Fold:
Amino acid sequence: MRIKYFEDTDTALFEFTENDVSETRDISENISVDLDREGNLVSLTIEHAGEKANIRNFAFESVVKKSA
Structure:
């Protein structure tokens, strides 16, 4: 997974796979998703990411499954 933030347009691009995009769907006015030909998520785009998604305060955390 890669996350790209374009400051000049305040756009965040989350890339989940490198599959070819077959279809783009608008989720809302500022959010769209790209799907491959099997309907799997390829990427997610958020316009106005600083305002709509607070991208400037992004953090990543990996949570390990606790064994019983």
About this structure: Residues 49-52 form the longest helix (4 residues). The longest strand covers residues 41-47.
